[in-house]
Specification:
Length: 201
């Protein structure tokens, strides 16, 4: 039986690895490609995580409406005057990363509809689908998917072929995956076979 505690912390560290210059550069390339897929005037839902934080920084100043699901992304989008319309959900922030979770976050998501969601993950494969590091994170991601017309997953190659603890949904729910050049070719091909458009940044 998986329990909270050391295993939970290890899984969380696996999901949010310490950033190196190379990994940060890859995340920024992925973020730039994601932003190129978002048009002016869209309503955008932005998941928590380090790659999504880079997306938030690049979206600041765009003519869009965006609701981020982490305190860091909220700060990035509100740090200077901008034509971007910022919406802030309710929720309980996690101490380590500022990700918003809990009933108030879920209620905020269920009350709204979005054109595009940018979703991070701990694991993604064609066979096991999209997975998260715990049930609270998975619940938020499920609500994100239910509230959005188009789902873009932003994940570096280390997440592909990996399965984390909490199931979110099948990969067929993803319209687009933006990843990097380290993504395993067989995993990319399998995801494309399910109908997901895979873009390498």
């Amino acid at each position: 039986m998986w329990t909270r505690g050391a295993n939970h912390r290890n899984e969380q560290l696996t999901c949010s690895k310490r950033l190196t210059p190379n990994s940060l550069h890859a995340k920024r390339r992925i973020a730039a490609e994601v932003c190129s897929l978002i048009g002016d005037g869209e309503t955008v839902l932005l998941d928590s995580g380090t790659t999504c934080l880079e997306v938030a920084r690049l979206l600041c100043g765009r003519q869009i409406t965006v609701m981020p699901l982490s305190l860091q992304a909220i700060h990035a989008l509100s740090s200077s005057p901008s034509p971007t319309t910022l919406m802030v959900p309710g929720g309980r922030p996690r101490a380590a990363e500022g990700a918003l979770t809990g009933p108030l976050t879920l209620a905020s998501l269920s009350a709204l509809r979005f054109d595009t969601a940018v979703v991070g993950c701990c694991g993604l494969s064609a066979t096991e689908g999209l997975t998260a590091y715990d049930l609270d994170d998975a619940a938020v991601k499920k609500a994100v998917i239910a509230s959005t017309r188009r789902i873009i997953a932003a994940a570096d190659g280390s997440k592909l072929g990996h399965t984390a603890h909490a199931y979110v949904g099948p990969s067929i729910l993803l319209h687009t995956l933006v990843t990097d050049t380290t993504a395993p070719a067989d995993e990319v091909a399998a995801l494309e076979d399910t109908g997901t458009v895979v873009t390498t940044a």
